[in-house]
Structures are given as C-alpha cells and as structure tokens.
Design a protein that fits this description.
Blueprint (H helix, E strand, L loop, with lengths): L5 E2 L4 H4 L3 H16 L8 H28 L7 E2 L13 E2 L3 E4 L2 E4 L3 E9 L8 H5 L3 E8 L1 H24 L6 H19 L4 H19 L6 H31 L6 H8 L10 H18 L8 H4 L5 H9 L5 H8 L1 H7 L9 H17 L5 H21 L3 H28 L6 H4 L8 H15 L5 H12 L13 H26 L14 H16 L7 H6 L9 H6 L10 H4 L8 H28 L10 H4 L1 H11 L4 H14 L1 H62 L4 H26 L1
Antiparallel strand pairs: 1-2, 3-6, 4-5, 6-7
Helix pairs in contact: 2-3, 2-6, 3-5, 3-6, 5-6, 5-12, 5-17, 5-22, 6-7, 7-8, 8-10, 9-14, 10-13, 10-14, 12-17, 15-16, 15-21, 16-17, 16-20, 16-21, 17-19, 17-20, 17-22, 19-21, 19-22, 20-26, 21-26, 29-30
Length: about 750
Amino acid sequence: MLGAELVTQTPWIFETVWLIPGIMAASFMLILFFGKRLPQKGAEIGIAAIIAAFALSSFATYTWISEINSGSEAESYEALPAATAPIGFGSAVVEPIAFAGEEGVVRGAPIITEYEWFSVTDPMQESVAAKSSAPAIGIGTWVDGQSIMMLFVVTFISMLVHIYSTEYVSGDRRYTHYFAFLSLFTASMLFMVLSTSTIQLIVGWELVGVCSFALIGHWWEDKPNSDAALKAFLTNRVGDIGLLVGMIILFFAAGNSFSIEKINQMAVLSGEDGGISQGVLLAASLCLMAAVMSKSGQFILHTWLPDAMAGPTPVSALIHAATMVVAGVYMIGRLYPVFWEGLSIYGSNINAMAFIGGLTTVGGGLLAFVQRDIKKVLAYSTVSQLGYMVMALGVGAYTAGMFHLFTHAFFKACLFLGAGSLSHACHHSFDMKKDMGGLRKKMPLTFATFMIGSLALAGLPPLAGFWSKDEILVGAGVWPGTEGNGTYHIPFIFGCITAALTAAYMTRVIWLTFFGKYRGHEEPHESSWRIRMPLVLLAGFATVAGFLNMPSGFVSAVGLPKSWAHKFEDWVEPEGVSTFVSKAQNGFTHAKPSLSLAIVASGLVLISIAVVWTYYKKLFAKDEMATEYTDGFMSRMPLLATGHKILTNKYYLDHLYTDKIAGTTKGSLAKVSYWFNQNVLDAIVNSAGSVSAAAGRALYKHFDQGVIDNAVNSSAGAASSSGGVLRRLQSGQVRQYASLMFGAAVLIAVVFVFALGERG
C-alpha cells in the first residue's frame, strides 16, 4: 500500500460480522431438527433468525457509513502499525478501514479478518520448512462497501420473504422443510458475500445452487417442477466448469494463493512488477464469464431462469432479487481488477463482458414481451436487468452496475411478491390472459405497489430505476460530455433499446392484469397484511432508493447540500488499491452525468408507454374481455409473425438443448453407441475369445499332449526300465552280492595301480 496506514479501532461489528450468516445457518439446523414440534412448525425460528440477522446487518451498514463519513478528516484517525501477522488459527489479519496515500486519506479500504481453514502440504515432504511454505487456505470475513450493501439487501429481502411466506405457503405439506431451506439459502449467500478466498467463494456459490435446487423443486410431485429444478442445477454446472478453471488459473498466477486480496493486488500490477500478465488474466476472465452466464442468467445459458418460476413465488422473489442470480454480478465486482485488466475495459469500445451483457439485456426484454404467465414476464425481465448490470461492469461503470443491483432488488422483489398476491387472489393462477384483468379496483393496494415497481423498473423519474439506469448509459462514454472509461457504442445502443422494451412490456402487464374486465371464474380479493406489508415496504424503497446516488448537478439544482450527492458511490465503491483498480495506474474515471441523455432516455420510456397504452386502450374499447387483436399486425406482416414465432419458441434454445443435444445424446447417439457396442466392441471381444480358445486347443493338442505329455511318459518309461534292471540286482542271494563286491574291489585296485604308475 502507498504511504503509512491510518486506522481507527476496528468496530466490534466488523470483527464479528460472521455472526450474520452464522445465525441463519443455526436457524437451518434448529428448524430441521425441532421445527415440526413447534407451534408454527419452525417458521418462528426462521423469522426470529432473519430479524436478528437484519438488525446486525443494519447496524453494520450504519457503522460503515459513519466510519466513511468521519474518515474525510485525517485527524479522526490514529497512526498505528500495519497488521502483518501471518494467517494462523486463532490469529487473524485485520486490514484497516482506510489508509493514507500521496493525495491524503483514501476511504473505503476493506476490513479483512481471516483465519487458517486448512493448508495443502506434500505428503512426501516431511521437513518443517516444506510444511511452513505450504499454501494456507483462509476463511474469514471481508467487510467493505460492496459486502455491506449486499448484507443489507439480502437480509432485508429475505426477512420480507419469510414474513410473506407464512401466509403464501400456509398449510403446505413441507412447510417446515421450506423454512429450513429458506434459512440455509440466506446463510449461503451471506457466506459467499463475505468471502476472503476464492475457495470460500466457491463453497458459498455451490451452496446457493444446492439450496435453489431444493426450493425450485419444492413441489416435486409435479414433474415440471422437478424438471425445472434439475434444469437449473445442471445448467449451472455447465458454467461452474468455467468457475473452477478460472479460479485454478488465478491460483497459480497469484503464486499458489487463493486470497482474493492478493489476486486483486497482483492483477493491477504489470508482469514486470511481479503482477499477473494480461494474457493470463484474459483467460481467467473468459472462464469466469462462463460462470456468470449460468448463475446470472446471461445469454445463452439463461434458459434455466424462467423455468425456475416453478418454485413458490416468495422463492422466486428471493432468487431473482437478492440471492442466486446476482451472485455472478457480485463475483465480477469482487474480482473486478481481474476483469478490468483481463478484458482491457479501460479505453476500449467492446469486450466480451459488455457484449454478453448488452445482448442479454435486449434478448431478455424481447422474450418478456410474448409471455402470458406474469411470473415468466418478470423472470425474463430479470434476465434483461442482469444483462444491464453485467453490461455496466463491462463498460467500466462499476458504481452504476452495483447501484442497479441495489435498486433492482427492491422493485423486482416488489413485483414478484405482487405477482404472488395476484395469484393468491386469483386462485393460484399466473395466466394474465385467462384469469386476470380488471383487478385495480378489487386489489387497490396491490395495484398501487405493482405500479410503483413497474415504473421503477421502466426507469421513469424520479423512481429508483431511473437513477441507476441513467448512470449505466452515461458510463458507456458515448454521449457527448460524459467521458466514460471507453466509447462503448454497441452496449449503449443495447441499453437504449432495453429502456424502451422494459417500459413497453411492463405497460402490457399492467393492462392485461389490472384493466378491462376480470376474466377469472371466482371473485378475487385483496391479500392479507402479511402479504401487503412487504409490498408497501418494497414499494417505498423502490421510490426513494435512487436518491442515494444523486448527481451533484441535480443536488445543486434543487438546493440540497452538496454532501448529499453521490452517497452510494462514497459508501460502496472500494477505494483501497488492494481491492480496486488504482486510479493513478489504470486511469479509472467516473463518467459525468448528462441532463440531455436523461431526457432522451426518459423520452424513450414515455414513448413506449404511450404506444402500448394506446394499443390496449383501443383494444379494450372494442372488447374489455379481449387480450389481443384477431386481425393485428402479425396477420398482415409475415416477417413480424416469424419474429413472434421465434420469440414464443424462446429463440429455439430449449429446442436446441432438449431436443437436439439431450435428445441426440439419449436417442441417435445412444443407438449408435449401442450398435457400436453390440457389433464392434462385442465382435472384437468375441473374436479375441475365439482366437484364445483356438490357441488353447492347439496348445493342448500339440504342445501339452504331444510334447509335454510324451516327455513325461518317456521319462517315466526310462525310470521304469532302469528300475527293472536295478530290481534284478536285488535278488536276495548272498553269493551274488559277494561276487559284485569282489568285482568292484578289483576294479578299484586296477584304478589305483594305474594311478600310482602314472605318478612314478
């Protein structure tokens, strides 16, 4: 680090922040073992635990903001030596909350508390030196603006989902099981958010996937539900191959280290300065993007995400707003120096991340337009908004991407829980065309909160989505005067198209759901307070959350103190060189806000709303029960009809994966493999067996019987003949024995005589 470190006494909440995921993990165990014996079947444990976790997260957020705000004055810090103790059980490395550089105090450096989890040693090396040099795998907590923001969002959304679920899944046969996995799901995401090593991040990443599998397939008796759970699980495994390969590359590139801090530090250094080369970072970035594509629903691995709507609606809200699908976006932010350098984000006009995000945001928006299931509309909307976040990070707009993750959590959770409220009233149907319509008067509070969420999603000022989406468009650096980190024309166009699409498909949802006449069979009703209360809170946040990052020009124009500007940026964007791209070395800059761009983007939103509003207003003027024209544009324009067919078939990606790839594997490829096994492999095996049998017969007949047996028989005959001769010598007559002895003595005497003669 540059300069001498300046630290305050670390607040206790930052050193014990592990309690937040720990409480939720304990809740899972308690519900699992004791839930069914309790009056509320374990729901009371889950709700108490998430309230405690939210309270601690809120306190941690307050403390972090207070420290950041007070850190603007250098005299509020006390100079202390840096913490340099090695990682070891019982001794943690605690990084400072700020440090002093050449330009004064830099705020927002992380507080890292880490312990040794395990070490990797070579069993063949027994020396103490070899063991001491083995890489130690750390586990701990990483507290900075990004993780603090996620702690607040995850616990807040999860708390509302817990309360909402007590009504929504009341009487469910696996009520206890549901709340147990809801707690574990929350704990897993929090564990991942606080990761200090890539190993810890991978563990949390996979735990989130396992929990989503259990919750998506909660009603597994229906085959579509279990199929959706398997599809989510297997599709994510495809991307996880990229995660593992990417993390392995970074491990070796960082000198056999899993430390996220060390990887980030080395990523911003050049190869000559002991850093990681750009080629290695590029390979790691592309591998990690595969994981982002699956976990965060990027094109072409997004297909699992809409099918995940098979799970209970509160689960859909939690998955799509605050947990699983934003895990990939969070991972990019945590390892942002790797992507920044690997993809050469600064000074560029396109890269893999920006293009994938831009393509996803448009592709998801188009698919949302043709859905009749309200949850499927919101699911494809999530795909589109996740593409927006990834695109933002791809163009170098780090704060804008994280800010959109923050605002999106509130209005998307509001919309999903609103859809659940509508379904609850319409007898568990999500079909807008068949079972909804005219609900604005029958469910006024649900209508009001859903409208706020929809307008926030569309990006209409002054709601939350407007501020974050506007920052992303500004960050592309295309609009005159914005001066971003590059000139990303294609992503900028993608972003503008998506702004219009989002407003259009949400206006369609509003009309089909709340206007016209009710098309269901029984009288709908407003939901209970346990469903309405979360909707009101989320709608409130969707209204005001955007003001946390107001541009300085807007703040001055409305007469607010200058200190109110860019607060989210101050609180969340990491400033320490150990965690983020060094501004001095890499030229990272913040794009400048543009009033003209904000007006143009808002104009696109209003035009889209007006076009769709006019379309349905004329349709409903003819027939309030109608949901589409029978003689519309598609009947007169074949090209438009073809496009609609492609969208209704979801770009034929499911057809490609299910019918072609999986179907070919299970069908023709399996038949070919079976034929090859039966006719080629078996023929080879049978031929080898026949040859072996023939060889065995030949050996038996000619060698065993003809050679070995003859040799044995001949030796036996010789032995028998010699035995016969010897038997004749044993006649039993003394005279014969005496004659033999005399002959032998004479023979020996002759030998001795000749021997002595030779010697003389």
